[in-house]
Amino acid sequence: MTIKEIADLAGVSSAAVSRYLNGGSLSNDKRRRIGEIIEQTNYKPSAYARAMRTKRSYQIGVILPNIESESGPRVVSGISSVLHQAGYNFLLADTEDTVERELNYLELFRNSQLDGLILVASAIDQDHLSLLNSIRIPLVIIGQNIKGYSCIYHNDRQAACEMMTLLLSSGCKFPAYIGVTEHDIAAGAERTAGVKQALERMNIPSEHFSRREASFTIESGEEQTQLLLTEHPETDGIFCATDLIAIGAMKAIRKAGLRIPEDIRLCGIGNHPLSDMIHPGLTTVQYHYKASGQKAANLLLDMIAHPGQTMYSEKLNYQLIRRESL
């Protein structure tokens, strides 16, 4: 179906159909007739023709650290819902937590015919900043607050502080924290800072606190908890930087013949779908991951429509969810 065929069926000129598709001025009668024909024929304008007309590709690049992570699918779902409604497609790059691959995708998307880019960020180093500074298309970063860029991020420090305070208030005397690399500013450095803040407020002596570092997996959580319990058998409470690490910790605690929460209290961050399915249910922090994707996509579309606007950053709220593990 072509514009001319639509025009013939509606009894109008091809120019009138073109004005209709581009939001131009038309009489109510012509607009009604054209609209009826388009609805009856399920006419879809050519993507190529639209790109030529608007000088846009209607393609967005999305770079994600790990599609199998706790947050990844929910963030992508939020991005997809907004871009689909706006008539945009997106190219999804999964870096599998590999810095080199992340840098390669940034380089690739920088040189592609994209209208904009969304980076779901973990670690940001000088190589990242050099590449980001060279990108000339609209860019939004999710998960990190990077000065000079539009960002949608979470209140990691306060969430971790509040969760550790809750753990200590539940009667825990010998707490432990299983964190992640502090190269990841949000999940690593900010959550660790929140834990330290809670310990200081609650006057917990340093000799009563132990800490280990895991990767973002159940297996690593189990391994680090086994080491923790071997070195510090007095541990009676563990706060994990993510729910997947906490689920791994739960496996190690059970293998050690200990009970949750009677012997060891346990909590995490992320409200992973499994956290309410396991027994006992995991006390955790609910982040609004899908909302972060939606907000980032809407912000990016606004930046595309209005070039040169001021950078915008938003810190999202969170919710503590207390379950049986505490």
Walk me through the topology.
Elements: H1 3-10, H2 14-21, H3 28-41, H4 47-54, E1 59-64, H5 72-85, E2 89-94, H6 99-110, E3 116-120, H7 126-134, E4 139-142, E5 150-154, H8 156-169, E6 175-179, H9 185-201, E7 210-213, H10 218-231, E8 237-240, H11 243-255, E9 265-267, E10 284-287, H12 289-305, E11 313-316, E12 318-321
Helix pairs in contact: 1-2, 1-3, 5-12, 6-7, 8-9, 10-11
Summarize the structure.
The chain contains twelve helices and twelve strands.
Keywords:
four-stranded parallel beta sheet; Rossmann fold; alpha/beta; six-stranded parallel beta sheet; single chain; 3 domains; 326 residues; 12 strands; elongated; 12 helices
What would your notes on this structure say?
The longest helix is centred in the middle third of the chain and has 17 residues, at 185-201. This protein has a six-stranded parallel β-sheet, with helices on both faces. Strands 7-6-8-9 form a four-stranded parallel β-sheet, with helices on both faces. A two-stranded antiparallel ribbon has the order 10-12. The chain has 326 residues and is an alpha/beta fold. It has twelve helices and twelve strands. The protein folds into three domains: 3-45, no CATH class; 54-153 and 289-316, 3-Layer(aba) Sandwich (Rossmann fold), CATH 3.40.50.2300; 156-287, Response regulator (Rossmann fold). The relative contact order is 0.12. Helix 5 (72-85) runs parallel beside helix 12 (289-305) and helix 10 (218-231) crosses helix 11. It is elongated and about 85 Å long. It has helices at 3-10, 14-21, 28-41, 47-54, 72-85, 99-110, 126-134, 156-169, 185-201, 218-231, 243-255, 289-305; strands at residues 59-64, 89-94, 116-120, 139-142, 150-154, 175-179, 210-213, 237-240, 265-267, 284-287, 313-316, 318-321.
